[in-house]
Design a protein that fits this description.
This protein is α/β, with parallel strands linked by helices. The protein has four domains: 157 residues, Molybdenum Cofactor Biosythetic Enzyme, Chain A; 42 residues, no CATH class; 83 residues, Molybdopterin biosynthesis moea protein, domain 3 (Molybdopterin biosynthesis moeA protein, domain 3, Beta Complex); 70 residues, Beta Barrel (Beta-clip). The chain is built from seven helices and 26 strands. The chain is elongated and about 95 Å long. It starts with a helix and ends with a strand.
Length: 393
């Protein structure tokens, strides 16, 4: 039986980055760039007005001066010719500053009547003009390879002329839930049936990483199970919830073997999630997760998300294990490494408080928690002690 840390390391050694693909900008948030992105143009691409007002020669402007207005330049327009001495032209924000003008007076500092514009203030040369390339120069590096794209960076990529960027590809994922007693939420429950909570939870977790997978439910019958898993193995990552322990109906490991899956490990010295199975078939990764919801959730945070992120080329693939202070005692006292459901609060650092629960099937406790606190084998942590933790907040 391997340790928690060994399990994470083993999974990540098997997860290999996929070939990059072109991704439209609006779909690229959260994806890792597989190229350096440089601007195809200067930004702004021309000297433009930063305000609504009048393009003028600054040396001519002082309080009380009146100039004739030559017309209007809107964004996207270009004035034919140039602004001569003794004249001005009305200009909208974003429009190109015409030849001959070297400043823009805000409309609030003017009044216009019968084609004459009166100015109430003087102005300096260059005022209210956004100069060509003052934000971005042609060829300038916008984002480096490996950057995980954030929503605030989309506008810069678009302004640089990119409609799509090359990113690490997301793996295809199959999601299988085992058990004859589970049915999709929303349907009427029959006798001795329960709703499938793991499937929607795992599908939602996958969606946060940009992956879409619909849960498939299969009964614990060998023939049905083998057919379902054979179909699932067409994907690059397979998640199987349930059927991996040692009971009579835990058929998954044996069936996977007949389908050519090589077992890498089965059982981790951790609580919850001891019966965790991990196997490979070529470059495909297969995760067999114990059926209890808390074990499913932990397995995704610790093993599955890191693998998916590494396959997608993200540099931040490793699970973030942080340090905090225990607001109360943690006393799981189990011979396995314990990951205790906890509330995490930011108070001059992180404060950790254990969430009371009835075991790894306690979905309400999971709903109230925001992290897992790590406690060593047969160990405990006193109030005020330091501890490692994982959070999804």
């Amino acid at each position: 039986m391997i340790t928690f840390e060994e399990a994470i390391s083993t999974v990540l050694k098997s997860a290999r980055p996929l070939p990059p693909e072109a991704v439209r900008l609006e779909e690229s948030v959260g994806r890792a760039l597989a190229e350096d992105v440089r601007s195809a143009l200067d930004m702004p691409p021309f000297d433009k007005s930063a305000v609504d007002g009048y393009a003028v020669r600054a040396a001519e402007i002082k309080p009380g001066v009146e100039l004739g207005n030559l017309g209007l330049i809107q964004a996207g327009d270009v004035l034919q010719g140039k602004v001569p001495a003794g004249a001005c032209v009305k200009i909208m924000t974003g429009a190109p500053v015409p030849f001959g003008a070297d400043a823009v007076v805000m409309v609030e500092e003017t009044s216009e009547k019968d084609g004459l514009v009166r100015f109430s203030t003087g102005i300096k040369k260059g005022a209210n003009i956004a100069r060509r390339a003052e934000d971005i120069k042609k060829g300038q590096l916008i984002l480096k390879r490996g950057t995980v794209i954030e929503i605030s960076q989309i506008a810069a990529l678009a302004a640089a002329g990119r409609g799509a960027v090359k990113c690490g590809a997301l793996p295809s994922v199959s999601l299988v839930n085992t058990g004859g007693e589970i049915i999709p939420p929303g349907r009427p429950l029959g006798k001795n049936q329960i709703y499938n909570s793991n499937g929607p939870m795992l599908a939602a977790l996958l969606k946060t990483d940009g992956v879409h997978a619909a849960p498939v439910i299969v009964r614990d019958e060998a023939k049905l199970m083998k057919a379902a898993l054979a179909r699932a193995l067409k994907a690059e990552v397979v998640l199987i919830s349930g059927g991996v322990s040692m009971g009579d109906y835990d058929l998954v490991p044996g069936i996977l073997k007949t389908l050519g899956v090589k077992k890498v490990f089965h059982k981790v010295r951790v609580r919850p999630g001891k019966p965790m199975f991990f196997g490979v078939k070529g470059r495909k990764l297969i995760f067999g997760i114990p059926g209890n919801p808390v074990a499913n959730f932990l397995a995704y945070l610790a093993y599955i998300r890191p693998a998916i992120r590494k396959m997608a080329g993200r540099p931040d693939f490793a699970p973030a294990i942080l340090d905090g202070t225990c607001a109360g005692a943690f006393e799981p006292r189990t011979p396995r490494r314990a990951l205790v459901l906890s509330r995490v609060a930011a108070k001059s650092g992180y404060s950790l408080a254990a969430v009371s629960n009835n075991g790894s099937a306690d979905i309400l406790a999971l709903a109230e928690a925001s992290g897992f606190t790590l406690v060593k084998e047969n160990g405990s942590i006193k109030k005020g002690g330091r501890a490692k933790f994982i959070t999804w907040k």
